[in-house]
Amino acid sequence: MTSPEPGDALGALLDADRWLERLRAQRVHLPESGELESVEVRLRERLAKVHELESARDLLRERYDRVAQESERLRGRSIHLEHALDDSATSPRDYAALQVEAVHARALADERDDEALALLEELNGLDGQLALERLDARPDVARRTELLERITQLRESLDEEMGARRETREQLRRSVASPLGERYDAALTRAGTSGAARVEGGRCDGCRLALAPLDLDRWKSMGPDRFMDCPECGRILLP
Ligand SMILES: [Zn+2]
């Protein structure tokens, strides 16, 4: 087996590194991750709304309990007064006063009952709204679960592919002889993504910079074993 031309080996290594970069970007920018983010924003907003409704409902319930207790107390008072009225020992003067008080206590108890009823209606309304919010959240909750599962699957398969491609990449790197390999490594560390780039239409396709006419001429005059670096990004320029 003949060893590959240095330019071909570099080209294969460059392609392998670009593949890895594409997979890394794909892993970070999955469309599912974008959708998950908007689903979670909606769910958080809904949760805030639910909490708001819950605290309003708790306050209302406290008020209802207080009013109901007060009504019970007034009812008790009115019953007690009515018993006193039934008592034959009560003097006519006391009787009239007791009667006024009994009527008053009953009237107040009726008022509290009306208030309690109105509060109960409000409470039912809030419970209804809460139930509706929870119902409306269901599709997003289900979608969130789906997306999380899908993202895990996609990442696993991307990781697998990246693992295999990384191995191939290491083999390709070993096929590039010294000192060209070290030159590639240094350019990769400096520029990121890859340590080489191709010249297309007079531009380095790593940094997109157009080569000056003199640099382009110099690059064209290089033999197959000699390589020039991009003056802008420092990547080794390949045809
Ligand atoms: Zn460049």
Any overview of this molecule?
The protein is 77% helix and 4% strand. The chain is mainly alpha-helical and 239 residues long. It has 2 domains: 6-175, Helix Hairpins; 181-238, no CATH class. Strands 2-1-3 form a 3-stranded mixed β-sheet. The radius of gyration is 41 Å and the shape is rod-shaped. The relative contact order is 0.14.
Which terms summarize this structure?
binds zinc ion; mainly alpha; single chain; three-stranded mixed sheet; Helix Hairpins; about 240 residues
Write the SSE topology.
Elements: H1 6-28, H2 31-86, H3 92-175, H4 180-191, E1 196-200, E2 203-204, H5 213-220, E3 236-238
Parallel strand pairs: 1-3
Antiparallel strand pairs: 1-2
Helix pairs in contact: 1-3, 2-3
The chain binds zinc ion.
